[in-house]
Specification:
Chain A has 319 residues and is an alpha/beta fold. Chain A folds into three domains: 44 residues, lambda repressor-like DNA-binding domains (434 Repressor (Amino-terminal Domain), Orthogonal Bundle), CATH 1.10.260.40; 121 residues, Rossmann fold (3-Layer(aba) Sandwich), CATH 3.40.50; 129 residues, Response regulator (Rossmann fold, 3-Layer(aba) Sandwich), CATH 3.40.50.2300. Helix content of chain A is 45%, strand content 15%. In chain A, strand 8, helix 11 and strand 9 form a beta-alpha-beta unit. Chains A and B meet through helix 4, helix 5, strand 2, helix 6 and helix 10 of A and helix 4, helix 5, strand 2, helix 6 and helix 10 of B. Strand 2 of chain A pairs antiparallel with strand 2 of chain B, so a sheet runs across the interface. The structure holds a DNA duplex (30 and 30 nucleotides).
Chain lengths: 319, 319
DNA sequence: TTAAGTTATGAAACGCGTTTCAGAGCAAGG
DNA sequence: CCTTGCTCTGAAACGCGTTTCATAACTTAA
């Protein structure tokens, strides 16, 4: 393996000149330029990018933290990040965490150790202050509604989005409304819960714990919830559901059980994945791709910004 | 930012000793160990991983090439890779290519420049010899049925798997069978095509070009194909379909059009995604997660191995 | 003609952790 | 008492590209 100094010797110039030529800097005479390229050719020179990273103090790599790679919500976000990163000469390092704090720290440590220039949390388990602690090492961005002066955020207003979902149902006369969520802990989930409680209060309905279905993230979870729903003595007539995947599971299981949607059970999903279109699920479209793209832009910048993106209702046939 | 030499000064030892302490090597007296850790604490030392990478000549990062991040086939593969990489202290760099050759080269260049220790091609567009060219820079693995002495491969036998799909249909009396594929060019696709032709020949049926539906990868493509199918004068009675996603699109569109499955059109999918279970699609289960895991193992090893994994038919209600 | 640029080039310092090798000190085996 | 071998430590070399600074040569404006 030859290095830049070998090239310099063969081309009869200094390493500085070699570096200049390789990086297309000005102020190098044409003949030397040529000599350098010939030497590169002759010695089959391969740059060692790790030396560049060490020298420059940056890597043009962004770390992406996501709990589950194989889930359309996160896949779509990741795609948005990747599409934005591509044209910008950035690479992505993905860290699948399963919501384990250690894995999240591992991702943050990549920032601390200068392996990545920034970190994007598509979702998280670790407390907020942990992200802040690592802020000194570089940009950290989160995909949730927080206005922190150190950490950039990109989000949709989950309170309003959930409210919209509730309103659609209420306009159709529903008063007995439940909801599905992946985990209660998440900050986006909490916003949804607040909206849930507030909306119920407006119509004078109590919050019934049995109507809140946790651990709903995948299609199978939807099927499970439907089963639970059938066993409820006092069951809700409508559900606002984590995402389209869970909504699909719910809908398909309902079909199997001969439960008509929306007559006996109305469903509102989130995301507007292709699946929702195919199954004609009424849903709230979230600009996941754009959230990803903006998250990337934030991650490569040292400025702290906060941005909310719009969502909108897609009316189909489950309400 | 302090470095290892600063630590050495403060702790009154050599950099060698500091390095030994930080890496938990033996042969360091307890008092020096302590002095080093105290200095680390005092100076708030942060290792620069790029220096480590440069020095060691490896990064414990594997590059993963995939055409589309946001597709359950590739997501599931990636998940398998990630799960295997996790316990092994490896990180993953993902490159989304959209099947563009340049992007694939970019991924291979990361290997050449020592940014990654190995590269996994979950699918590719570039010709095979290109991968071989880069083999000198490190392990390259492909997820397709090729027995090359330089490049490791992990795959399922797509010829046999497709054959199985055809047989299931033929056993039910189908003779007019078509198929869907993402792109004809891929080597896995070609195996399927061979199987298709061979099986048709066995029953004396011709290969009808109109019964081969290309560019089928997503759910929407399934809906499109169903529409095309309805317009065919002489239409097949059964389709072997790219994957469960396309099969779902097909099935749901059929339902909308009032076309009964499997009576008027039988469908066999591939993968066995949760969606296939939910929609009761007969499919051929591919061990995608395990393919990913094995691909990772191959990518971190310099030995060239070839491995085929088993598949199996999951009979449900679309045949 | 002189001061002020502009072009061109290289020495040396910088970023930083790992590893080899040489050597010192000490204990166990013969 | 001597040899062998293990414990412990540090100097120096290694991996390698970038960048600053000094300098030289040549223009151009005044």
């Amino acid at each position: 393996m030859s290095n830049i100094r070998d090239i310099a010797k063969v081309a009869n110039v200094s390493v500085t000149t070699v570096s200049r030529v390789l990086n297309n800097h000005p102020y190098v005479k044409e003949d030397k330029r040529k000599a350098v390229w010939e030497a590169v050719e002759q010695l089959d020179y391969q740059q060692n990018i790790n030396a560049v990273h060490l020298s420059k103090g940056k890597t043009s790599v962004i770390g992406v933290v996501l709990p589950y790679i194989n889930h359309p919500y996160f896949s779509r976000l990741l795609e948005g990040i990747a599409d934005a990163a591509e044209g910008d000469g950035y690479k992505l390092m993905v860290i699948q965490t399963n919501y384990e704090a250690e894995k999240e720290i591992e991702a943050l440590d990549m920032l601390r150790l200068k392996q990545v220039d920034g970190v994007i949390f598509t979702s998280r388990n670790s407390p907020w202050y942990v992200l802040k602690e690592y802020r000194t090492y570089g940009p950290v961005v989160a995909c949730e509604n927080k206005l922190d002066e150190e950490i950039s955020t990109i989000f949709i207003d989950h309170y309003q989005a959930f409210q919209l979902g509730m309103n659609v149902l209420m306009e159709k006369g529903h008063r007995k409304i439940g909801y599905c969520i992946s985990r209660r802990k998440g900050s986006n989930s909490q916003k949804r819960h607040e909206a849930y409680c507030d909306q119920l209060e407006k119509i004078g309905e109590p919050v019934r714990d049995k109507w809140i279905f946790e651990k709903c993230l995948h299609m199978e979870d939807g099927a499970r919830v439907l089963q639970e729903w059938t066993k409820l003595e006092d069951a809700p007539t409508a559900l606002v559901v984590t995402n389209d995947l869970v909504a699909s599971g719910l809908l398909l299981e309902a079909e199997k059980m001969g439960i008509t949607v929306p007559e006996r059970l109305a469903i509102v999903g989130f995301d507007d994945q292709p699946l929702a279109e195919a199954l004609q699920i009424t849903t709230i479209r979230l600009p996941l791709h754009e959230i990803g793209a903006e998250a990337f832009r934030q991650a490569k910048s040292d400025q702290v910004v906060h941005k909310a993106l719009p969502f909108r209702l897609i009316e189909r046939k489950t309400v």
